Structures are given as C-alpha cells and as structure tokens.
Amino acid sequence: MMGRFRDLPIRGKLLAMVLVPLAVVLPLLGIILLVWADLSFDRLLITKVRSDLAVANGYFERVLGEVGASAATLADSNALHLELARQPAAELVPLLQRFKTREGLDFVNFRRSDGTLVATDFAPAGETSAAPAFRLRGAAQRRASVEILSPDELERLAPALIPRVTVPLVETRNAAPTTRAQEDRAMVVLASAPVVSADGRQLGHVQAGVLLNRNLPFIDHINGIVYPEGSLPFGSQGTATLFLDDVRISTNVRLFGADPTNRAIGTRVSQTVRDAVLGRGGTWLDRAFVVSDWYVSGYQPLADGAGQRVGMLYVGFLEQPFTLLKYGALAAIGLIFGAVMVAAALVSLRGARGIFGPIEQMAQTMQRVEAGEMGARVGPVPGHDEIGQLAGHLDHLLDTIDDKTQALQRWNAELDAKVAERTRALEAAQQQLVRSEKLAAVGQLTASIAHEVNNPIAVIQGNLDLARELLGADAQRVSGELRLVDEQVERMRLIVTQLLQFARPNEFAGYIDNVDTAQALQSCLVLVAHLLSRTRIELQRELHATRLPAVNRNELQQVLVNLLVNAIHAMPEGGTLTLATRDAGDDAVEIDVADTGAGLDAELLAELFQPFVTRKKDGTGLGLWISRSIVERYGGDIRAANRGDGRPGAVFTVMLRVEDRGARVPG
Predict the structure, then answer these.
(1) Residue 207 class from Cβ within 10 Å (0-12 exposed, 13-18 middle, 19+ buried)?
(2) Which of 88, 213, 551, 612 could form a disulfide bond with 621, CB atoms 3.0-4.6 angstroms apart?
(3) Is residue 662 one of the residues assigned to a domain?
(4) Co-location of 653 and 538 in the same domain
C-alpha cells in the first residue's frame, strides 16, 4: 500500500493527502458527534422527567400532610370536645359533615379508643348497617398514609363513594396477563389523629380521608403543577397517573383527544414497568409505552402504612415531538458536516492545484533541459510562496549552470596547461625521490663501513692489551706511546659510534634517559664540525637550562644534527649560529637553534613540517618531518619562526618534557 502511494505522481499524492482525511476524519467526527448528541439528548429528557417526578411526588406528600392536618384540626377542635361531653352526642354527625365540607374531605368519622366506629359524617355507626364494627391501621396515633380499602370497608365509611371505586379493566398492550375483569378496591389517603381530653384521657380518635379512585381534580392539579401550559415545546403533552397495583385509577391520559372525558382509566401499565417498580421497588426513568404511544416516563412506587407496595405515581410527556426534534437536529448536524466537507474538499483541491501545478511545470522544464533545450525556463508562477521561490531558484540555477558550463570549457583549457606543468613538476619530484633513495643507500653503506671498521679497532685494542701483558714491567718504558695508542683507538671507536648513531638511529634507540641538553649539543657539534670548518660562521652559546628532559639521547642528537645542518646551509656566506637552552613552564626545556640566514617566507612557513617540502637543491624534504615525529613521540614539539630581535634569519625551537621534575644538571 505504501509502495503504491510512493509511486503516485505528486498530483495524486496531494489529492490523496487532501481528500482522504476529509473523506475519513470528518465523517468519523460527524458520527461521533451524532452519537454523542443522541445520547446527550436522551439523558436530557431523562433528567427532565426525573425532575417532573420529584415535583409530582412533592405535591403528593403535601396532600398527605394536608389530610393529616385536617384530621388533627378536628381532633383538637373545641366543638368536637364539647359535643363528646354531651350525652347523647346528637350533633356529632352534623359536626362531622360540616368539617368534611370545609376541609374538602371525602369522608370523616370518629372512633372510640379501642377502634370501634362511633359515628361517620353521614350517620351514627348503629344506623349504617348491622355489620359489626371494625378497626383500621393507624388508628391509635396521629399519621397519614395511602391505604387500600376493600368494598366492605369503604361502604361502612362512605357508601356514597362506591360508584367511583369500581374500575372495569381494559385490555392493554404489553400489560401482564390477568384473569380479573375489574378493580373494586379503593385507594385512599387516610389520616388519623387521637382525641385527648383536658385531663389527659384519650376519648377516641378521628379518621379522615380522600378517595383517589377517579379523583380527576386531584390528578389534573398534579398535571397542572408539573406541566403548566407552555412548559413543553414542540407540541408535546404531559400526563400524570395514579395506579392501584398496575391499574390506572386516576389519569389524564387521552385528556387531549377529541373527547376530554375519555380517559384511560382501567388500562394497565406494561409488564416491564410493573416488574421494575412494583416487583423490585425501583424507580423507572426511561421511555415507556403508555396505552397507545411512547412517552418519556417516570414511575415511582407508592407504599401503604405497613410498607407494602400498593400502587404507583406516574408523570411523563409524549416522546414523538422530541424524537422528531432530535432527528431534525441530527440531520442538520449531518448536513452541516457534509456541507463543510464538500466546501473543504473544494478549497483543498484548489489549494492542491496551486501546489502541484508549478511542480509539474518545473518537472516539464527539467525534461526539456535533459532533452538538450538548455534555454528552457520555468518562468513566472502564481504566488510568492516557497514553491514560487523554488521555481525562481530553479531558473536561477539553470542560468548559473549555463554560465558555469561556459566557464568550465575555459577552465578545461587552463587545466590542460596546468596538468602539463604539474607533470613536469612530478618528474622533478621523481628525480628527487631517486636522489633520496641514493642517500638512503649511502646511509646503509656508511653503517656497513662503520661496522667493518669496528672489527679492526677491536683487534688493535686486543693486541695492545696483549702486548702490555707480555712486556710486563718493560711496558713502563713505552707507557706514553701505549697511552697515545689507547687514546687514538678510543677516538676511532667514538667516531664510528657517532657515525652509526647518525646513519642508523633506530638501531640505537629504545631507551629513555634524563639528557643534559648542553652535552647533547656539544656531541652534535662534533658531528658537524667539518661543516663549520668550511664556513665563516660564528658560534654563540646561551645554555641556561637546568632541567634534564626525558628522551632517547641518540634520537635527540639526530634531531639537533638535522637542525644544525639546516642552519649551516641557510648561511652559505657566513653568519652567526646561536644555540640556547632554557627552562620553560613547570615541566619543559626549550632548545633554540637560530641562524642569520634569509629567513622563512609565509608560504614555506605554512607547510614547513610536511614531507617532501624543501628549498635545498639536494634536499629530500623529510628531515624536519622526521624530526618533529621523533620529538612528538616524547610529548614535545618543534616550532619554526623568523627571528624577532631585528636581525634576519630563522629560529627553530625544540620543546621537551621533563618526566622527573627533580632531574637537574649537577651543579
């Protein structure tokens, strides 16, 4: 894949780099945004229905509190206490009727302390029926709760409410299967409050309640609080419902249809919601199918005074308007992303064309130049960016190449002439190398002769010692002659040894000693004495060094002899040869060999220590290079410069290191 991409022309690469991100990244970002928006919108709806359910539950708790407060008010009223003090209490029933009407209750009754029913708001207990009296939960304390009453219990308390209780069950989609045909139980808000006399005796208690079955004002008021007019946009409708078990006993679902009285009382909740809320006691906050449509719904369980789940409180709003809004918003986002992608593609294509157009023009120009059209040029290109600058540089480069080609042709002719000149110089160098080889052969011959001379010297010395032994006491008569012979033999050995050290220094190297530089110079002067004797050179000594550098004595002599010979050759008409030694720095000794010759020009000074560099007709150009190599091997250096004391000539300075800083000339 990458190989095919690399083989594409620049136009294809740019288009791929521009369009692939637009075709992949933007759609991917769009999908991510759509999914996020979808989830966020759904979470927003769930958050709203959670808030709506909390408002509805708050109002329901408020109703419980109001009914409880009404019961407590009656229990504490002076009128009730006065009526109970009278025997018989003939005005108790009218009192209960007036209180029920004033407080907006559906029923109210008075019971003795043991729970026996004494009077209701419509008749004394003895006149209601022949059935025995019964007790209700919570009668002994002040409390308010949701309770479920059987038909018999409700008939003893409020027979006028029986027509509102029975709810025929309506077959409902997704509801749990059941064999019941109707719901005849009553869901009531039941409150009780004890009646206590002034002396602390409990005279009985008051029970008051509100029937929730078909209590349309109650459920409409909840719906009005949770969903006031204009609170839901886009035509959505809010609903509220009270369930007894899973049956709608009071609801405003379908209230907004053609027939406002056609409510969904008797329909049942879906089995999924029933299992989650009534079965597991959880709160449902999700979309749910309500009667005939999908609603964003909130269900919470309702428990009686004993803590048993007996029903549900529901609020919700129609999902379809919000779904249409969500899909419309998502579609708008998709269209915006699509439009942005198309616009970005067009802009990118135009920008890419501004890049690969000049590049293709430059490529075509190079093809024309390769074909031999040397005058081909890119010419002006639109824009002054890097590509425009590159096109200008290419034209400038082609102009330069054209100029350089012509210059190369001129230089070619000059080069031919220089090659001929260098060839002649090379031949001269070859001749010089031949001379150097001859000198090397002379050195080998000298070393061979020196070795051959050593043998006769050894024979003479041995015979001299033998003659001295044979003469015995008579040797004293010729002791002067014998001593003279010894001195001359020793002189011959010294000359041969120094000749060997100069001709074959490597054979005598290999050990390092603390060398007295003054003595080393004196030994070297012996070797060059024959050269000094032929010239008018004055010798000056300034030997002030006290340190003994660590170096091989023979190699140091080789270096100094080379410098002395060069200095003598630099003064063919005579002059002054200055030899100086001095302590330098903390651990060095410097030896100066200065002449009063012509000095060193700048060109020669720059390459003086390179091999084969010389100004002498019979020189090899290797002496200074070898000398510096020897000195550097011992951590030193050789420097060359023209004299700076107002006199002509050059000075060569040998710098040597002192290994043992305590090594000094004995003094």
Answers:
(1) buried
(2) 612
(3) no
(4) yes
Cα–Cα distance, 158 to 156 (Å, whole number): 6
Largest CA distance in the chain: 191
Per-residue pLDDT at 21: 66
Residues 124, 126, 129, 132, CA torsion sign? positive
The dihedrals phi and psi of 606, each to the nearest 5 degrees, come to -70, -30
- Which strands sit side by side in the sheet containing 238-244, from one edge to the other? 247-251, 238-244, 309-318, 293-303, 284-290
3-state secondary structure of 389: helix
Following DSSP, what letter does each residue of 519-556 receive, concatenated?
Answer: HHHHHHHHHTHHHHTTS-EEEEEEE---B--EE-HHHH
Secondary structure (H, E, C), 424-437? HHHHHHHHHHHHHH
Clarify whether residues 163 and 238 are in a common domain: yes
Residue 557 has pLDDT above 90, yes or no: no
pLDDT digits (tens, 9 = 90+) for 338-374: 777 777 767 766 666 666 566 666 677 777 777 777 7
* Alpha carbon 561 to chain centroid, angstroms: 69
The Cα 360–Cα 394 span in angstroms is 13
Q: What percent of the chain has pLDDT over 70?
A: 76
- 74 and 205 fall within a common domain: yes
**Number of folded domains in the chain?**
4
Supply the DSSP string of 243-285, one letter for each residue. EETTEEEEE-TTTTSSSTT---TT-B-BHHHHIIIIIT---EE
What span, in angstroms and rounded, lies between the C-alpha atoms of 173 and 290?
9
Q: Does 479 or 162 have the greater pLDDT score?
A: 162
What is the rounded average pLDDT of the residues 536-550?
A: 88
Assess whether 64 and 16 both reside in one domain.
Answer: no
Give the integer Cα–Cα distance in Å for 632 and 638: 8
The mean pLDDT of 102-106, rounded to a whole number, is 91
Q: What is the pLDDT of residue 320?
A: 81
CA–chain centroid gap for 519, Å, is: 72
The answer to whether residue 666 sits within a structural domain is no
How far is C-alpha 485 from the chain's CA centre? 94
| 179 Cβ neighbours under 8 A, 6+ residues apart | none
Residue 239: enclosing H or E segment and its boundaries? strand 238-244
Token couple for 650: 């050059």
Identity of the residue numbered 310: V
Q: Hey, what's the torsion of the CAs at 654, 660, 665, 667, to 10 degrees?
A: 150
State whether 478 and 612 are in the same domain: no
CA Rg value for the chain: 65
- In this predicted model, what pLDDT tens digit does every residue of 182-203 receive, in sequence order? 999 999 999 999 998 888 888 8
- The number of residues in the chain equals 667
Residues 213, 165: contact at Cβ < 8 Å?
Answer: yes
Instruction: Specify the long-range contacts of residues 30-38, CB closer than 8 Å, at least 24 apart.
Output: 30/333, 30/334, 30/337, 30/338, 33/333, 33/337, 34/330, 34/333, 34/334, 37/326, 37/329, 37/330, 37/333, 38/326, 38/330
Give CA–CA dist 391/379, Å, rounded.
8
In this structure, the answer to whether residues 406 and 545 fall within a common structural domain is no
Least Cα distance to 80 among 242, 198, 180 occurs for 198
Closest CA to 137 of 200, 188, 65, 213: 188
Q: How far apart are CA 667 and CA 665, in angstroms?
A: 6
51: pLDDT strictly greater than 80: yes
Check pLDDT > 50 for residue 132. no
Specify the pairing of strand 238-244 against strand 247-251.
antiparallel
Q: Which domain holds residue 24?
A: 2-40+330-366
**Chain-wide mean pLDDT for the chain?**
79
pTM of the model: 0.50
Q: Which helix (H) or strand (E) holds 111?
A: strand 107-111
